[in-house]
Amino acid sequence: MRLFLLFTLVPLIEVMLLVRIGRWLGAGPTLLLVVGTGAAGAWLARREGIRSWRAVQAELAHGHLPTDHLVHAVIILVAGIVLITPGVITDVLGLLLLIPSVRSGLIVQLRNSFAQQIERGNFTVKTATPFSNESFEETGRQERHGSAWPSGREIVVEDESNPDR
Question: Using the 8-state DSSP alphabet, how is residue 157 labeled?
Fold first, then answer.
């Protein structure tokens, strides 16, 4: 139902807003506004995407998993997609998602919401062992080990090609 509302109401509201802005500013300036915000948004999304990609590469070069940087990159991708969509609301949303402090705040909210869903037992993690058909489920309430994210299973992969490791 949410997706239905998203894909029907948002475009309808966007068209209504663009018609009102067109009546107020005229067709030419309204078209320039839509094209201009799309171009500026694409430029900003590219710039922020490159910055995010460099941060991911730096984390990987230091041997760390770039989890926060990858989440930033996904949000930037979503911002770019939203900015390409013609409309006023989507442009404002896309531009907001390109601001690093807004993204960081969104990530904190998503992390907290995710942790609450797991603690309530509303989230089920399904995993399987490698190279087998065994599977098991874990539901809710997992111990935390000093992290804002609930801990899961640790998977250790041994590199058999290098016996010194």
Answer: -
Say how far residue 82 (Cα) sits from the centre of its chain.
12
Q: How many residues does the chain have?
A: 165
How far apart are alpha carbons 100 and 67 in whole angstroms? Answer: 15
4 half-sphere exposure, CB direction, 13 A CA radius:
1
- d(C-alpha 26, C-alpha 75), whole Å: 33
CB 82 within 8 A of CB 44: no
- Find out whether 25 and 88 touch, Cβ atoms under 8 Å: no
Tokens found for residue 115? 């942790």
87-143 tens-digit pLDDT: 888 888 988 998 889 999 999 998 888 888 878 877 666 665 555 555 444 444 444
Its pTM stands at 0.64
